[in-house]
Amino acid sequence: MDLSNENVIHIKKNGIQYLQFKKLLEYKDKITHAYSVGLDVDFTETLGEKRKNKALKDYKDLCNAIDLNINNLVKPTQTHTDRIKKVNHEINEVTFNSEEFYKIDGLVTDRTNVILATSNADCILLIFYDPIKNVIANTHSGWKGTLQRISIKTVEKMKKEYDCNPRDIICCICPSIRKCHFEVGYDVKKLFFEEFKDLNEIDEIIEETIPNEKWHIDTVLINKIILKQQGLKEENIIDSNICSVCHKDIIHSYRVEKEGFGRATAIICKKERK
Ligand SMILES: [Zn+2]
User: Fold this and answer.
1) What are phi and psi of 63, to 5 degrees?
2) Which one-letter DSSP state was computed for residue 198?
3) Distance from the CA of 243 to the center of ligand 1, in angstroms?
4) Which of 17, 64, 176, 212 is the most buried (most CB within 10 A)?
5) What is the residue-level pLDDT of the chain in tens, covering all 274 positions?
6) How far is the CA of 210 from the centre of ligand 1 (A)?
7) Rounded to two decimals, what is the model's pTM?
8) How many Å lie between the centroid of ligand 1 and the Cα of residue 176?
């Protein structure tokens, strides 16, 4: 199975698989990034030693594959908030779910050698890069994060902290559950309708598939639209176009795997200038 398409390349290297966005590879002298394929990086404390060790090993293998040092990695405890945090100090020890990054769903930094990490199983992960200000961000936007517009809050944070111009910002949308499989009942549909009913594309965003019972929602399209409203250029919003459920054999999906589900990760890091 090869997931390569016009926007991403699927790399298989020494048994490790990952995706890279072609657009971000244009800046490979400045940044390094990847979205894991097949690895399981869930580091939740309650999962027990064995699972944690596997997560650590998989993170290490992925970092090694793209020439990064896992000791520089920071991953927040994602809890479907709309909070973005600036990483303004060195990371010298792998940092998973620490108190400093508790209940945080997005990270932003201009520091070199800090690996920003997020994880998902169906949720949207967004990798941001501003090549002018040389600032990176990495945000987890599940359906609850999308309702809270965390994608544009990331852009706002980049503006506020680093004076980024939205016109310069590139946003890459990792594999996630897509409209083809994101089926919801009335309560969730109502939340999306209330929040986004003013968008011209609302009929495309919410599609009734079983009358008065089931709806399919396009959370990726919502993010594309609100990012554009925020000032990002259409050509700088890059979609992997990959559905986690359609590719459940190699992309983790909570809806498919259910209890004990695995997680994939998106990582991005600015390189040390040599
Ligand atoms: Zn699908």
Assistant:
1) -60, -45
2) T
3) 5
4) 176
5) 899 999 999 999 988 999 999 999 999 999 999 999 988 887 666 667 887 888 889 999 999 999 999 999 999 999 999 999 999 999 999 998 889 999 999 999 999 999 999 999 999 999 999 999 999 999 999 999 999 999 999 999 999 999 999 999 999 999 999 999 999 999 999 999 999 999 999 999 999 999 999 999 999 999 999 999 999 999 999 999 999 999 988 888 888 888 778 889 999 999 876 5
6) 17
7) 0.96
8) 9
* Distance in Å, CA 40 to ligand 1 centroid: 20
CB 118 within 8 A of CB 138: yes
Q: How many angstroms is it from 119 CA to the middle of ligand 1? A: 19
Amino acid in the structure at residue 115: I
Ligand 1 center from residue 3 Cα (angstroms): 14
Tell me, in angstroms, the distance from the centre of ligand 1 to residue 256's CA. Answer: 11
The pairing of strands 206-210 and 237-239 is unpaired
E strand or H helix at 33, and its extent?
strand 31-37
Using the mean position of ligand 1's atoms as its centre, give its distance from the Cα of residue 81 in Å.
25
- For residue 204, the CA-to-ligand 1 centroid distance in Å is 16
Residue 139 C-alpha to ligand 1 middle, in angstroms?
21
Q: Whats the size of the chain, residue-wise?
A: 274
CA distance 5 to 106: 27
